[in-house]
Amino acid sequence: MRRLFRLAALILPLTLAMPVQAAGFDSVSRLTDKGFHLSAEARLLDDDSVLAAIEPERQLSPASVSKSYLAAAALDRWGPQHRFTTRLVSEARPDAEGVLHGDLILDGGGEPALTTEDLWRLVQRLYQAGVREVSGRLLVSQWRFGPVECITTDRCEARERTRHAYSALLSSAGVNYGNWCVNVAPAEVPGEPANVTGCDSQAAILAIDNRVVTRPDNSGTQISAERVTRDGRDVMLLSGQISTNAHPRDIYRASSDPADQMALTLLAMLDQSGITVTGGADTTQASPPPAAATLAAVDGKPLQELLLRAMHYSNNYMADMLTLNLVETPRADLRSGGAAIEAFVAGIPDHGPVTLLSGSGLTPENRTSARGANALLDSLYHRPSLFPSFAATLQSPANGVMRFIRRGSDTFQRHVMLKTGTLNQPVTVRAVSGYFRTASGRWGAFSVLVNGTGSTPYLSWPEVLDPLALDLEQMIDNH
Fold first, then answer.
1. What is the per-residue pLDDT across 440-454, written as a single tens digit (0 to 9) for each?
2. DSSP state letter for 63
3. Which of 184, 307, 395, 479 is the right S-S partner for 438, CB 3.0 to 4.6 Å?
4. Residue 341 has what DSSP assignment?
5. Is a pLDDT exceeding 60 seen at residue 9?
């Protein structure tokens, strides 16, 4: 009897504790009945008390919640005000006639948000430096990283063809998020081909196969776009229709080679600015010669603004560009970038294991746990110099740019800030992680990772966000 009593004494605290934790995720826990794997935890950050948990240490795919790890590591490495610099350099100097007798080199600085507007400013500064002609070549140097090995299906396929913008390939000398842009506008007369031009230059940079037909007013607009590579050149294939009274549409598709895209774009801009390049344009993986001096430079946006865009729009190109920048040696790849983030995470107390093959979360092999994700959030919460910039990268459901998160009660929408993660292949992933403020003003962290299997049904976001909103609302109101 005594042995049975002691056994009961050991079991009783566990059986009492389990309903308390499960009660916090009563609604979310029902996803397990459908065969989904869950790792979930919610805790208060002032006393580290756990409000709810479902297998909190279980290792699951976080999808784009991986970007929270990248954001934290980047802020830790560089600080919120860091800027990446793109330079035009040369061993030569312009002579009295403005001729640069040598090669002009674009030193790609790994800026994740470099756009044609930045290139125009860079070219203008080169013009102000007195350059009117380059007797050599325009060389685009991607010595830091690029071309980067593709390790996801979409990016590998994008080397030949793509119907997407998110599958952009990576280079430290990329521009416009690794995407070509074309503008489609209606012709004046129905039956005529639509007017299609490049977004970034008066000169034709990208080959266009235009099969979009103009239809009468209010006929509807449906445009199909695919970027393919033919004989080593990118071509935008367009088909469909556009109404005569429709607004022009900008269409983005990933390029097959971001450094080559940079070379063609910059060469066209130099020409339009009155700077002739005699030797044409090419790309290189060699770093600029030590004797090369800066002729023009442009700084990118502060890191805190880059992270806000990368996180709010879940921009995979920006996230993985920043991941590659974390690698201090040339010729970086995503695995070494992921290892740099893992090294940062190793310094977070009580985090536990983490596997990151990318900072974007496109790699389905990424793994963490709800407890680990909360440990990350907790560590940033206790760093006053970084926390404001980090918290700003998360979205409030009430005001976030992603409308699908605008669910649940007013309490959920206005007391929570979060990052979501989505994958549909090889299995369904729906992940959410972020902070909440309780009714009394206390800070909490929560993470919910939901992974499917080959036999589980499709899982929509409402099936995750609606029960999560109910559970978090109770925690917020009760504390």
1. 999 999 999 999 999
2. G
3. 479
4. H
5. no
Supply 465's token pair. Answer: 């966000």
Rounded (5°) CA angle 277-283-287:
105
User: Strands (DSSP E) along 149-271, which ranges?
Assistant: 161-162, 179-185, 195-198, 207-215, 222-230, 233-243, 249-254
Token digits of residue 107: 């030193």
Strands (E), 344-472: 416-423, 429-437, 443-451
Q: How many CA atoms lie within 13 A of 46 on its CB side?
A: 8
CA-wise closest residue to 263 among 417, 104, 442: 104
Q: Give CA–CA dist 275/134, Å, rounded.
A: 7
State the pLDDT confidence band at 23, using cuts at 50, 70 and 90: low
13: confidence class by pLDDT, cuts 50, 70, 90? very low
- The Cα–Cα gap between 269 and 46 comes to 54
Supply the pTM of this predicted model: 0.92
Distance in angstroms (rounded) separating the CA atoms of residues 17 and 415: 27
In degrees, rounded to 5, the angle at the alpha carbon of residue 365 between the alpha carbons of residues 309 and 446 is 55
Other C-beta atoms closer than 10 Å to the C-beta of 206 total 21
pLDDT at residue 336 greater than cutoff 60: yes
Among candidate residues 434, 421, 423, 436, the one with its CA nearest the CA of residue 473: 436
**Angle, alpha carbons 47-53-58 (nearest 5°):** 115
Question: Position of tokens 């603004």?
Answer: 305
- End-to-end Cα separation, the chain, in angstroms: 42
Report the run of H or E that residue 302 belongs to, with start and end: none
Average pLDDT over residues 249-276: 96
